[in-house]
Amino acid sequence: MRRHLFTLILATASVPALAQGVPAGSGVEPSTVANSQARSIVFATRPADDGVLVILMRDANLPNGVLGSAAEASVKAAIANARFDGRDVSELTLRGIGRHARIELVGLGSEGDAADRLRRAGGRVAQNLRNEAQPVSIVGAASDEAASVALGFSLGQYRFDRYKTVGKSAPSTQPATIVVADVRSAEAEWKSRGAALAEGVTLTRDLSTEPANVIYPESFVARVREAFAGVSGVRIEVLDEAAMRRLGMGTLAGVGQGSRRPPRLMLVEYRGGSGAPIALVGKGITFDSGGISIKDGAGMWEMKSDMAGAAAVMGAVVALSKSRANVNVMAVAALAENMPGGNAQRPGDVVRTYSGKTIEVINTDAEGRLVLADANEYVIANHKPAALVNIATLTGAVSLALGYEYAGLFARDDAMAAQMTAAGKAVGEEVWRLPLHPNHARTMGSEIADIKNSAEGGKPGASLGATFIGYFVDPSTPWAHLDIAGVNWADSSDDMTPKGASGWGVRILDEFVRNWKR
After folding, report:
1. Does 380 score more than 60 pLDDT?
2. Could you give phi then psi for residue 390, rounded to 5 degrees?
3. What are phi and psi of 330, to 5 degrees?
4. Each residue of 90-99: pLDDT tens digit?
5. Has residue 35 been placed in a domain?
6. Quick check: 5 pLDDT over 70?
7. How far apart are the first and last CA of the chain?
8. Is residue 11 in a domain?
């Protein structure tokens, strides 16, 4: 009897705290409402007679036939008096002219990429008119330019206000009408790609903005399942903690072992083409306290968005699948919460990956690379992708090097780097290639394991992190890594990104996958 009791005590001691019936969190949802409804985007051959009229200007000359003669004369006089020349980012607001409550002149300029200028102008319009109650008409774009304006407007009008309860005023849901000569072609172009792309970015921003008591590994999975509900050609696979342990995935399970929110590995495959899929593998740390190597308190709240890489890959596949792109692609989210619980892994622990490789954990705050190690190996072994892209809010070092203007790009071959760079330029999510050097691999060597997850005092932090991740990608697999720690969160608004989660990565990954060549 005493022997059986001893066995029972040992078995009970090995059960994680969550399995003992104590719920994680308060159990009270902070909100039961959605974010405010956005303006719908429609296309028409003429603007509304009233409301807000936006005129996209390439120089100081008004487009023909936009205004009646009296109003046109007044606007021309205002342009002359203000010396408005239509340069990029120039703006002029006029009121009390004709029947329009407001006339907004927005400069497009003539230099640089035209699609980018149109997107940014659309985003600025949306943010300028954020609190306008009137319907909006936008003129000055050609039929084949309207989708770019629509995308910019959609991204610029984003807001996350579901938790506001005091003094909240609902934004206008009056439509934004883009005036073009050929409504059918503009509408078709928008619906064929732009609308789905905007939906993907919105999903990514929502996931990244939600607090960690709302989005954690299990609820991330549930939210993404909802986003793909009814989409044809999509298959979803989810591994829970028990499956990870059976498969020997010690790095993903290890990062999550200090939390009462168990980890998950989520794979969403969309098959719209032929051949092996391109795998997009994102870091999904739903909250990063640093674990035992705990972070400073200042700014720790922002670690709710340490899953922005995982959110971005899901948003990209939403865009590709809902636009019926002719591609095969797989989004992979390596999901865990990194907490300093009584069962948390410690600095100095050794963990084993899916393939059997061993890692000495020097710093538990270098956890994103750990979850990506198991995710990369599992995807390569079981799905044999044509190429693999990692995306992660990985290092503070990359933001020190590149700021908010660029994400860090790492790749083992020039062709992969060139394709990713071209994709970024095309959509306005630019990257800057950083080095991978043999010395980085030597720096990451461990005396007791195959590799260590961090190098104390290691200066090229972004490159060392990328080197570690690449160690778990078969050299025969084309591979790139995007470190988005500097671009995933906007401390102030820019043209298409209101302050907050940027949704960075959806557009570059969408573009890269559509144009991928081996």
Report:
1. yes
2. -95, 145
3. -135, 125
4. 999 999 899 9
5. no
6. no
7. 65
8. no
